[in-house]
Amino acid sequence: MATSTEMWNRGIPLVLKRLFHLVAAIHFWYGIYFDQKYVHPAKGHPLYGIMTTFGGKFRYLTILGAIWQATYFTLCVLNDFFGTNESYPKRPSKLRQLKDYVFATFSFPLAMTVAISFWALYAVDRELIFPKTIESFFPNWLNHVLHTNILVFVFIELFLSFRQFPTRKSGITGLAVFLVGYLIWVHIIYYISGKWVYPILAVLNFPMRMLFMIFNGAFGISFYYVGEYLNNKIWASELKSAKSSGKKHK
Predict the structure, then answer these.
(1) Cys-Cys with 166: which of 14, 49, 171, 176 at CB 3.0–4.6 Å?
(2) What is the pTM of this model?
């Protein structure tokens, strides 16, 4: 008897899934392109000096997170046509394995981290994360692409596509390496430019700054567990069948 995933993968639903992946990939790549091409403060603007220093737009976790979303959905499109969406294929392709790994390790945790951190700080004091003066050159729709839609799309994908998470050691190690690398990048930027990437870092003393960074690192890693938990709940029957199938093929 076909599982719910196999039934979903048939006919028009499969076409809709492929269309969603294509729209998502274009959505994020266009947002990144527009941000790089057109979103720049004019000379004399209060944020001109900050946003044109060493590192450019790639100083921000927002952009790096959006790149991971665009990369993930691009992998989905490639997998839709050249890989497999079967619940438990006998030999999962490298493309399928990479797609599942990127979602679990980078796409879901970073979408949660960026969206929740941004809107939480925005609610407390928007000047610490998104100064009002930025609205003169940063369109509202792009703000939602980078800080809201990342969460919307990733949750739709969580329910739409079956995946198997990597081992916790592999997944958390990959995410931790990325987060530590980003913190190092933030300090390199400060060392070269003398400016912190985020205004909030400038108002914290050294001990509070370290605690803030440690908290945010742990905050980001915690979402790996959230993603794993939700995936295991949503796809419980498919994961059970995949595990049984794996034993049979050994």
Answers:
(1) 171
(2) 0.88
